[in-house]
Amino acid sequence: MKRKKLVVGNWKLHGSLLENQRLLNRLKQELPALSGVDTAVCLPFVYLHQAQTVLQDSGIGWGAQNVSQFTEGAFTSCISAKMVAEFGCTYTIIGHSERRALKLESNQVATKRLLNALHAGLTPIFCVGETLDERDGHMAELIVRNQMLNVVYGLDDEAFALAKKFNMVIAYEPVWAIGTGEHATPEQAQRMHAFIRMMVAERDREFAEHIRIVYGGSMAPHNAHSLLSMPDIDGGLIGRAALVAEDFIAICQTANQCLAQKTAALEPSPPAFSQ
Ligand code: 13P
After folding, report:
1. Least-confidence region, from 22-36, 88-102, 219-233
2. Nearest residue CA, atom 7 of ligand 1?
């Protein structure tokens, strides 16, 4: 199955109006030429309008880093999926481990946020991943399975149909690889991505073939090719390297080439010349 790669920058708690303008302008110069990869940036809420203004019609998407589990009401400081959608967002990250680690987000809360995102017409990028202790304790698959259960079985038919309609994305982000400079090996990541795809197939085989499962955790220009060449790694969720225009562009270029290589490999070879 040929899936178009997706590379998303997660800017986390970084940026200023001036820095963003420079970075977004640079991305706008380079990324639209890459037709074989979808690209996007997820910025702090307060910069969504800026992203919308700069990136409108560029082909580069933008999104939020979270949305509230509530839709409306007396919830000071919360920002709803519907509000975010008004700023032209395509994506929102949900359940990032930095949110889970602060004990702000259980699997149940993450699922509520996911549902709100889907009902607002956003494409959720739902994050899963194990800590180092969990990996060392041979529990990585169990943990990821638990996080995925809500997505696979916790959504009713209507919500699952929305997940398909809005092309829900799963991000496998091993916690030990985030911001450490130590990425999962391509084989480790591939194994987990195939496992996640298999879980989606338990609910819907066809969607499992289409859903994009992206990798996050110290992806950088020097390791992007080996990771993105794996059959079940459909892109990247990039933290630190997304803040450096040249690095993010290089990763997007690599993803773009990966699709071209895959396409060439899938094309039947021309018939042997016979006299
Ligand atoms: P780094 O690329 O900095 O490891 O961050 C990954 C991440 O958390 C993306 O959501």
Report:
1. 88-102
2. 239
